[in-house]
Design a protein that fits this description.
By secondary structure, this protein is mainly beta. Helices cover 12% and strands 32% of the residues. It has a domain of 93 residues: Immunoglobulin-like. The protein is built from 2 helices and 7 strands. β6 and β7 form a beta hairpin. The radius of gyration is 23 Å and the shape is elongated.
Length: 145
């Protein structure tokens, strides 16, 4: 059977040289790869609303927080780890599951904030963001007295 490993492209081309790659590699080597990456979202425009789906697999509903502040929606998810206590007993041979927290913020300009709905099922957070009615600019002519 073939050994399946992730493919990683290294840019050895001189035109693609980035002197800051050294610092990225140094950070990865120092902190390791146990950190949680950014969660992915899809945003769909259905005409009267936006539907946002964020992949948050392995999180409990209680560990996901949605905060509204100054026309910004912040999604925060935190995964706790209890392997350290079990590791002292010698039960784990290898522990690769990540723990930690991450967050993303989204602009809510043009959204009816009081009508946002959220649901979490099967590792996907789904937000329904109704669009605000476009402001109608009223124009009129003033009479000079």
């Amino acid at each position: 059977m073939l050994n399946m490993t992730p493919y990683s492209r290294k840019h050895n081309d001189v035109s693609m040289y980035n002197p800051f790659n050294f610092f990225d590699d140094m950070e990865r080597n120092f902190f390791g790869s146990n950190s949680i990456g950014e969660f992915k979202t899809d945003i769909q425009d259905t005409g009267k609303e936006y539907v946002m789906e964020a992949d948050l697999p392995g999180f409990k509903k209680e560990d996901i927080h949605l905060d509204l502040n100054d026309n910004a929606l912040t999604i925060t998810a935190q995964r706790h780890s209890d392997y350290e206590e079990k590791d002292k007993k010698g039960n784990f041979i290898r522990c690769e599951r990540s723990f930690g927290s991450y967050q993303r913020s989204f602009d809510l300009d043009g959204i009816q904030v009081d009508k946002i709905k959220a649901a979490y099922e099967n590792g996907v957070l789904k937000l329904t963001l109704p669009k605000a009615a476009p402001a109608v600019e009223s124009t009129r002519r003033l009479e000079i007295e």
